[in-house]
Specification:
- There is one protein chain.
- This protein has 132 residues and is mainly α.
- The protein has a single domain, classed as Four Helix Bundle (Hemerythrin (Met), subunit A) (Up-down Bundle), CATH 1.20.120.
- Helix content is 78%, strand content 0%.
- 30% of the residues are buried.
Length: 132
């Protein structure tokens, strides 16, 4: 497996851990028979954790498809790997800014992560331009 493929798994794990941690920390208040109970998410940090989790679900498909498509079309693997690692680092920072209620920095990180995804997506095009 490539580093970028491991980053796909890391991104998946990140968005799952984003919501699992608050549930585990507040295990006495969390009712697993009602996992989407709005009253559990009334707490501001839990609410932000849920929002970060949902954003992770939204960001994951584009990242996974971009990596796999770039690799399938034989984009420059080292660059794909480096950008995938950078994306994962940006996503970790994004989660912390979401939990820390830093909306401006969070938006900057989201934009950076999206730009990284676009760059990964177009890696095959970059390769064809370099080899032309």
């Amino acid at each position: 497996m490539t580093i970028a493929e491991w980053c796909i798994f890391g991104t998946l794990a990140l968005y799952l851990l984003t919501i699992a941690a608050p549930k585990w920390i507040a295990f006495r208040q969390f009712d697993n028979s009602r996992p989407r109970d709005p009253s559990f998410y009334a707490d501001p940090i839990r609410s932000r954790a849920l929002a970060a989790h949902q954003n992770g679900i939204e960001a994951f498909p584009f990242f996974a498809v971009a990596v796999l498509l770039a690799q399938f079309h034989l984009g420059p693997q080292r660059l794909i790997d480096e950008l995938a690692v950078l994306f994962l680092i940006v996503r970790v920072a994004y989660v912390f800014t979401y939990l820390g209620n830093r909306p401006t920095l969070r938006s900057i990180l989201w934009t950076l992560g999206f730009a990284i995804n676009v760059a990964i997506f177009f890696m095959p095009l970059i390769r064809s331009v370099w080899l032309a």
